[in-house]
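> agent: user asked for a holo structure of the chain below bound to S-adenosylmethionine. Plan: (1) validate sequence alphabet, (2) canonicalize SMILES, (3) run complex prediction with ligand conditioning, (4) return tokens. Step 1... ok. Step 2... ok. Step 3 dispatched.
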Amino acid sequence: MADSADPTGFPLQDNATHDATEHYERYSAPIMAPFVTAAVEATDLFPGAQVLDLACGTGFVARAAAAQVGPTGHVAAADLLEAMLTTAARHAPRMYPDIEFTQAPADKLPYPDDSFDAVVCQQGVQFFPDLEAALTEAARVTRPGGRFTATAWTPPADRNPYMAAHLKTLTEQGIPEAMARFATSLSCPADRLTTALTTAGFHDITTREITFAIAFPDLTDFITGHLRAVPWGQSLEQAGGPAGFTEAARTIREALAPYTAPDGSATLPFTTTLATATNRPTTR
Ligand SMILES: C[S@@+](CC[C@H](N)C(=O)[O-])C[C@H]1O[C@@H](n2cnc3c(N)ncnc32)[C@H](O)[C@@H]1O
């Protein structure tokens, strides 16, 4: 889980050898796409809505939301990591109303009370060092009766074969920092999210699991690219160098052999928890 002294449990940074957040944008896209659609649909956005993409990363939700709210709406997007926001801005389309990207921690957002009709947090809640504080802040910036939606990978790792393959490899390599960073990504089960949403003052809380089968035309390329786009992959590379990284990619691929076709393509199921909630009905 995120260390309470560390403001992000997802410390991905561009580095000298590659542009990690561009890798995130490219290689996370196929995994995230159907879940982004599900999260935005569950939020009941409407033309003219004011929306916040919380822990926006490179902006998958912000872009999808901008298309829904149209020219009379507004999308803000906040993330702690500057590198994510730089890449997000690079990929922001010009055909929608401008998305307003802001660097901010989830528990200290630079928006006035009641700013948004909806807040969407896709694969972010598990990385907040203080989930209750972050959701209380989300409630503060959401108008009374506004909507909150979050997704988080459903633990344990064996619910998702791709993640189980990462866990197996990380366990074999035995690098504590890499294992801790990976564990954080699976650290928010539905009951934890429900409790934190309740503490934050949300009501009508629902959680459900959603599964999508995702097709990878070239699994080897995907594994290598995606491992460069996650903090535990960066830890593996720092500890084991290029040889350790290559070995990790090889063992992940090997663990996924049962899902892989002779041409190198694969289809893997991914399961996430989708939580929805409504903000308190009246202004504080
Ligand atoms: C797995 S990424 C998800 C990004 C994006 N929502 C998506 O769907 O691809 C997790 C994101 O949470 C952000 N994050 C982690 N801790 C944060 C915090 N305390 N406040 C704001 N953002 C945070 C990271 O910088 C990262 O961009």
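> agent: step 4 complete. Summary for user: Residues 20-278 form a domain with the Rossmann fold fold (CATH 3.40.50.150). The chain has nine helices and seven strands.
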